[in-house]
Amino acid sequence: MRLTILGGGGFRVPLVYGALLGDHAEGRVSHVTLYDEDPARLAAMTRVLEDLAAAAAVPDAAVPDAPAVTATRDLDEALRGADFVFSAIRVGGLEGRAADERVALAEGVLGQETVGAGGIAYGLRTVPVARGIARRIARVAPEAWVINFTNPAGLVTEAMAEELGDRVIGICDSPVGLGRRIARLLGARPQDAWIDYVGLNHLGWVRGLRIGGRDELPRLLADTEALESFEEGRLFGAEWLRSLGAIPNEYLHYYYFNRDTVRAYQEVAQTRGAFLRDQQRGFYAEAGRTGLPAGASLAAWDRTRAEREATYMAENREAAGAGERDESDLESGGYEKVALALMRAIARDERATLILNVRNGSTLSVLDAEAVIEVPCLVDANGAHPMGVGQLPLHAVGLVTAVKAVEREILAAAASGARADAVKAFALHPLVDSVAVARRLVDGYARAHPGLAHLR
Which of 124, 201, 208, 266 has the fewest CB atoms below 10 angstroms from its CB? Predict the structure, then answer.
């Protein structure tokens, strides 16, 4: 089985390859093609994967060879013959993310890469590229299944579905990590728990967690000490979680505590995007050096990843007074495991239940059939099928429908290139509080990004 990774020089690629190294079943991925426009990043990442394969090798053991790795800057070459395409691109790079943050914060609004003004700017840059890639996949590899991790993941999945239909499925590690933490607190193995999760990407709620057919979430909500012992409990506070009767995705902190997080972001010396930009520059320069001893590139990646995970959402934790991340929260969210389980379920018809980004159909009555939502899905050889979920309470309906309306305006603006459509996308977002601010944001992003200059 052949897997192509778009954004193959990206920092998280070793997580996917590491998951593949642990899969020894028949029909596993035997070849990985890395596609990236940056030759230096491709070269550095190829070295890290070589180190990973060497570290996983067991002398004289009857285990399959590590998946072969090739790298290319030719998109058609990368796609040809692929069974699965994993999309994890970043249009504009981390410099673009840092600019998204600066422009928004200058206007006193949130610049996070998937939420608020920053997410809209990132979407306007990314959707045209994602649509182009989808058309190429449909032409060059029409039988391939596409797994999208490119942010904003729900929006980009919906854009690609215009061309690929249900053959594109979005994944995210946030619901996986949240469900795992709750299950462990309740004394259950994550794989034994049914997680009632519903919403959009980075805008969802755990409303129940069933173990042996019994909903155990009320037990957790009643226990203040347990609630405040994990990441989301410390971010939101036990009182607010009990008021909601649910555990929100961590990204809802930007909505429920917007002023606090904007203030915290404005006070830091360096935004998250700028931090990652500088950090990764150092990593790629180190990992790409010639003459490195075996294992050095992987060691550099491990150190960089540990620092990246420890500083994740640091501003939100500062605003909430949540302190440092616990060691249990530093474990990878597991999107690479979701990707592997998704591929196995489709390729081998090994049925699995996973929280995914898929077209709504009739799952949520407040949204139309084409809207991409994030819900538990049954996956088999025919793809991912959203499972029935209870309807959203009104407070959640308001957020979900408002943000979906913004996503639709982003799709329209990316297609039309019209300034008015872009202004409407910004102005309608719950975290942008003024049409005048929306117009200034469009002007700021048009100056910051050459690809958006036509919006001025």
Answer: 266
Distance of CA 450 to the CA centre of its chain: 25
> Can you read off the two tokens belonging to residue 16?
């996917």
| Phi-psi category of residue 90: left, alpha or beta, with phi > 0 → left and psi -120 to 50 → alpha | beta
348: Cα within 13 Å, side-chain hemisphere: 16
The residues with which 148 forms a beta bridge, in sequence order, are 87, 170
Q: Find the distance separating the first CA and the last CA of the chain, reported in whole Å.
A: 46
Per-residue pLDDT for the chain (456 aa), expressed as one digit of tens each?
999 999 999 999 999 999 999 887 778 999 999 999 999 999 999 999 999 999 987 665 556 789 999 999 999 999 999 999 999 999 999 999 999 999 999 999 999 999 999 999 999 999 999 999 999 999 999 999 999 999 999 999 999 999 999 999 999 999 999 999 999 999 998 888 999 999 999 999 999 999 988 999 999 999 999 999 999 999 999 999 999 999 999 999 999 999 999 999 999 889 999 999 999 999 999 998 888 899 999 999 999 999 888 877 666 656 666 555 555 544 545 789 899 999 999 999 989 999 999 999 999 999 999 999 999 999 999 999 999 888 899 999 999 999 999 999 999 999 999 999 999 999 999 999 999 999 999 999 999 999 999 998
Residues 6+ apart with CB under 8 A from 67: 3, 17, 20, 21, 28, 29, 30, 31, 32
DSSP characters for 83-108? SEEEE---TTHHHHHHHHHHHHHHTT
Helices (H), 186-334: 217-221, 224-227, 231-236, 238-244, 253-256, 258-267, 272-287, 296-310, 314-320
- Residue 184 structure tokens: 């462990």
CA 21 from centroid of its chain's CA atoms: 22
Q: Say whether 304 sits in a helix, a strand or coil.
A: helix
C-beta of residue 263 within 8 angstroms of C-beta of residue 269: no
Query: Around Cβ 382, how many Cβ atoms within 10 Å?
Result: 10
CA 11 to each of CA 166, 202, 225, 393: distance values in angstroms, whole numbers, following the listed order: 28, 21, 36, 38
Q: Are 120 and 406 in contact (CB under 8 A)?
A: yes
Q: Provide the angle, in degrees to the nearest 10, between the axes of the packed helices 272-287 and 296-310.
A: 170
| 404-215-172-118 Cα dihedral, nearest 10 degrees | 40
Strand 383-386 relative to strand 203-211: parallel, antiparallel, unpaired? Answer: unpaired
Are the beta carbons of 149 and 335 closer than 8 angstroms?
Answer: yes
> At a CB cut-off of 8 Å and minimum separation 6, what does 168 contact?
134, 145, 146, 147, 148, 157, 160, 161
